[in-house]
Amino acid sequence: MKTFTQKARDLADPYWTGSFEHPFILELARGTLAPEIFRYYLLQDRYYLEHFSRLYQLIGDASEDIEVKELMLLNSRHLAEGELAIREGFFKELMITEAEIAATPVAPTAYNYVSHMYRQLIQGTANTAFAGMLPCPWLYQEIGERLIAAGSPNPLYQRWIATYAGEEGRTAVANERRILDRLYDAATPAEQKQMQEAFCISSQMEFAFWEMAMTLESWPLEAVNVSDRKS
Predict the structure, then answer these.
(1) Residue 72 Cα distances to 98, 167, 196, 206, 210, angstroms
(2) Active-site annotation holder among 83, 136, 176, 200
(3) I want to staple 141 with a disulfide (CB 3.0 to 4.6 A). Which of 112, 169, 201, 213 is the partner?
(4) Dmax (CA) of the chain
């Protein structure tokens, strides 16, 4: 019998496959991804990761499970020491300033993805919030594993790929899956459904995040008059 994370991954597979085959990922691997697209991705990802780290802390505080509390604290620390530190290096290399960060609005997809994860804590449980967090590290780990052998001719993109490939990431994801599977098995049917939905929506948002970067997504500048639309 399949575990929760195996079943959730199967249900979300169209979005994972879409991520693996998205032009953002394919062009990044080929080294042809436009610099302004990668730059925009980094700016939006900065907002996302800032809240992702905060969510780890909030889930740890809300959970009554000792193993979850310890894991969330560890994940928050590792994020600060690893991925966020690497992003700071990218920002310095690309000369992304605090002024540029402040002047770049949060894109709708980044805003909605973060809001979705906070909602799991407000309208769900620590377990449903945890389930909504897993697709990000798991998907990126799989992307890193897929791309690392061939790599990218662009040194900056190659460093991005290398961030997510390796035994440490693989072990961390396996541990998170093990804990979530245990939590799911002990959950009520209602909570199990919420955990599955949280995982699938996050998988959809991961796919949307690449699209957000490729289109340099922004909020509408003005309202559209419905009466002006052609039928």
Answers:
(1) 28, 20, 20, 21, 26
(2) 136
(3) 169
(4) 58
